[in-house]
Design brief:
Distance between the termini: 12 Å
Largest sheet: 4 strands, antiparallel
Number of helices: 5
Radius of gyration: 16 Å
Helix content: 25-40%
Number of strands: 4
């Protein structure tokens, strides 16, 4: 079993091979969890009920929170994208795909070197249109669930960890989390 420091070095080294903006390490006791985050999913997200990576299909909120708490450390990172219109959901979804690709690639790289970790991101974007709820997921092994689906209050966490989540204008910031 690798030491905590060795694990951090593995994660940092792997992550820095991608175009990430900011990152930090922390203890999972620092992660703010709230089951109320699911309300935002239900009321504000068009992917609610239409993505296997998002509520209500990604698991019970309390079980998801417990799963996150099984790990001791986290690595939070961001990517930043400038878009023509940050209010255009389709533009933002296309921009999010780049972040998700980085996250999936990082996860594959970490699988080679870490024994046990769990990764969350912004929600799956592998397929142009998710098969949910009519058919099974086409890529269950590649899918990343959203942090919100696990009760993580991501803006609060980023703020408390000193990471920027607003660069102004038509700039979008996306976050992913590696628990280990």
């Amino acid at each position: 079993m690798k030491t905590e420091q060795e694990q951090k070095e593995i994660v940092e080294s792997a992550a820095l091979s991608y175009p990430i903006c900011e990152y930090c390490f922390g203890d999972t006791t620092q992660i703010p969890f709230s089951d109320k985050v699911r309300y935002i999913c239900e009321t504000d997200c068009e992917r609610y009920r239409y993505s296997w990576a998002c509520p209500p299909y990604c698991g019970d909120i309390h079980e998801n929170i417990d799963k996150c708490r099984q790990y001791q450390n986290f690595f939070l990172f961001s990517t930043v994208v400038e878009v023509a219109n940050a209010w255009d959901k389709e533009v933002c979804l296309r921009a999010k795909s780049g972040h998700e690709e980085i996250s999936r690639n990082l996860r594959e790289k970490l699988k080679e070197k870490l024994e046990d970790f769990y990764m969350l991101s912004t929600g799956c974007t592998i397929c142009e249109k998710c098969a949910c709820p009519d058919e099974p997921c086409r890529h269950p092994e590649e899918r990343l669930s959203s942090m919100e689906s696990h009760g993580i209050v991501i803006i609060q966490l980023a703020d408390e960890m000193g990471l920027c989540y607003n660069y102004g204008g038509d700039t979008i910031v996306y976050f992913s989390l590696v628990l280990f």
